[in-house]
Amino acid sequence: MDENYDLSRLCLFTGTEHYHRLNRRCLLTDGAKYLAEGAGAFWLMDAAASYLLELGTSDWFVQVRLVVTGSTAVLTMEDGNGAVRARQVIPYTDFPIPHYTLYACWNGSDWVIMLTSEY
């Protein structure tokens, strides 16, 4: 975790001013980028993006959930109605928040990964 970032500020992100390219089909909002930088969690964004590319665009909305227990975690990709589309056990993490949810939305050309407050 980067001490220059105050993760309690995540709730202040509403909407976004810029999109930040993560890969050829995924963008991060300002808040998602802040989380990735502050928590050292670009791995989380990369994992989510890899599943989004695999899932395709039949679902335009996906919930990305991370639940941390001790130093392990479970990442799930859900359809927003409770159906799990993908699940991965993360054997080690130092992610500083016990559970966190991101949203991903298909904008017609890219998946946009965002904080829930930016939806």
From TrEMBL:
It comes from the Bacteria. Residues 8-119 form the DUF6876 domain. Pfam families: DUF6876 (PF21781). InterPro entries: DUF6876. This is DUF6876 domain-containing protein. It comes from Limnohabitans lacus.
